[in-house]
Design a protein that fits this description.
Helices cover 3% and strands 53% of the residues. By secondary structure, the protein is mainly beta. The strands form seven sheets. It has a six-stranded antiparallel β-sheet, with no helix packed on it. A six-stranded antiparallel β-sheet has the order 24-33-26-27-28-29, with no helix packed on it. The protein has a five-stranded mixed β-sheet with strand order 4-3-2-1-20, with no helix packed on it. The mean pLDDT is 97. The chain binds beta-D-fructofuranose. Belongs to the glycosyl hydrolase 32 family.
Length: 491
């Protein structure tokens, strides 16, 4: 289908109830629907927005285009949860219903101020000549809907283009100021982060640009985030326009972090080098929040812009990642699946297995929704592979090369493939031998956590439903695994 501009920017006022009902029905029965991931009831989901924990409930919002798998008019969709595992559908939270968000309520964050939930986002406006004007907006969530939209920055400040969006706000107890970091493009077409501050949350002033060592690193930085963790300052952002460097930076756009120390007064950020957050095929625009135990939790979009996915034809696209808890170890960010996900576990199986230069199909272990925990007790093999979602010639391969100490995620033979993606493997060099893997499999995704969350791979796969086998292969020697599998039930 050819998407005209008119089709892309339809709102609920332009689409009949019957038509939307039909869209939802088609999606409900589509193959590849996930079991325990947040996914759209119809249309396209992208960035997680407004993550916040308030009065015992987690609020997760996301970018949503309701009418087909295309980036068009964006709404904020809202779900809530006591544990980030079981979710209640709250429907639309922000509709693009004013002049300043006439072409989409774009990404942003949430914060509780005086016991009110404030949603802080970018209104995307296009003029008649299709020129983009970004507005930074604060809206108050009352019940399930937002109200009182107030613009606090109109357009982009001097020195920046109209690519100016995705405010992430926080309160700093030391300075007693609210801050907002905003993703920006300088007029010389390089990416940056711009900081605003406010004493009372109503009046905001431009503070300046975050000063990093990356003065020319891509043409736009989207979705910035800033927080303190384990004594370090952490800046997350998504630079666009970074060239591939060997096995690094292979996705269309990158998502990574800088770890260091921020002097909030001068905005000088001293940091280590940029690192990717995730080594899989499908990860972008993550956002973090402080959880019930003050832990730092991250949720990402398991998708990328400008890529055609096999579900598009079924009228829906994308999901969010499972939530992960962050920690700093040896000046790197580690990510581990939140413990609450253990509530989904059932039907445990456990075995200690040795395979010698052989291939073993775990006949009793079939499945399409499960968690695998694998301890590598001893490895004399040059390579080993864990094949999941396997049957006949179809499988998704997780491979370890012991000599090179490299790990490869291979979806060449996984089934249907997204289009517009560079290659079918993703590789990372590990700093230590691989000794632990935690693998989450859902109908159409795989999330891998290696060596206690030091390396994470998030990827969509689109296999046949009947590809449900698990196979283990060792090459040139013995490998002994302690393997546990839990089936996972619906979230
Ligand atoms: C990132 C992004 C944001 C923007 C939103 C629009 O994926 O491009 O920069 O606010 O998506 O949906």
């Amino acid at each position: 289908m050819e998407w005209t501009r008119e089709m892309k920017y339809r709102t609920f006022e332009d689409v009949s109830d019957e038509l939307f009902k039909e869209m939802k029905k088609k999606v409900k029965h589509a193959r590849w629907r996930q079991m325990y991931h947040i996914q759209p009831i119809s249309g396209l989901l992208n960035d997680p927005n407004g993550l916040v924990y308030h009065e015992g409930l987690y609020h997760v919002f996301y970018q949503w285009h309701p009418f087909g798998a295309i980036h068009g008019m964006k709404y904020w969709y809202h779900v809530t949860s006591p544990d980030l595992v079981h979710f209640t559908d709250e429907g639309v939270a922000i509709s693009p219903d004013t002049l300043f968000d006439s072409h989409g309520a774009y990404s942003g964050s949430a914060i509780v101020v005086d016991n009110e939930m404030k949603l802080v986002y970018t209104g995307n406006h296009r003029t008649k000549d299709w020129e983009r004007v970004p507005y930074q907006v604060i809206s108050t969530l009352k019940g399930n809907e937002d109200s009182e939209k107030k613009v606090f920055v109109k357009g982009a400040p001097n020195g920046y283009t109209e690519h100016f969006r995705d405010p992430k706000v926080w309160y700093d107890e030391n300075t007693e100021y609210y801050y907002a970091v905003i993703g920006a493009q300088r007029v010389d077409k390089t990416g940056a982060i711009v900081v605003y501050q406010s004493k009372d949350f109503n009046h905001w002033e431009l503070k300046g640009e975050l000063k990093t060592d990356y003065s020319s690193f891509g043409y736009m930085w989207e979705c910035p985030d800033y927080f303190n963790l384990d004594g370090k300052g952490v800046v997350l952002f998504c630079p666009q326009g970074i060239e591939r460097k060997g096995d690094a930076f292979r996705n269309r756009y990158q998502s990574g972090y800088l770890l260091g120390h921020l002097d909030i007064k001068s905005l000088k950020f001293d940091h280590y080098q940029f690192e990717e957050l995730d080594y899989g095929f499908d990860f972008y625009a993550p956002q973090t929040l402080k959880g019930a135990q003050e832990e730092r939790i991250l949720i990402g979009w398991m998708g990328l812009p400008e890529t055609t996915y096999p579900t598009d034809k079924d009228g829906w696209a994308h999901c969010l990642t499972i939530p992960r808890v962050l920690s700093v170890q040896d000046n790197h960010l580690f990510q581990q699946p939140i413990k609450a996900l253990q509530q989904l576990r059932h039907s445990k199986k456990r075995e200690v297995l040795t395979i010698n230069d052989d291939s073993l199909v775990l006949e009793e272990w079939k499945g399409t929704h499960y968690e695998l925990l694998i301890d590598v007790l001893d490895n004399q093999a040059s390579h080993f592979h864990i094949d999941i979602r396997q049957s006949g010639d179809e499988y998704t391969r997780c491979s370890y090369d012991a000599k090179a100490r490299s790990f490869t995620f291979d979806r060449s033979l996984s089934g249907a493939l997204p289009e517009g993606v560079d290659g079918t493997t993703r590789v990372v060099q590990l700093s230590n031998a691989l000794d632990h893997m935690q693998i989450f499999v859902d109908t159409s995704s795989v999330e891998l956590f290696l060596n206690g969350g030091q390396y994470v791979f998030s990827s969509r796969i689109f296999p046949n439903a009947s590809s449900d086998g698990i196979r283990i292969v060792s090459e040139n020697g013995n490998v002994t695994f302690d393997i546990t599998k839990y089936n996972l039930k619906e979230g």
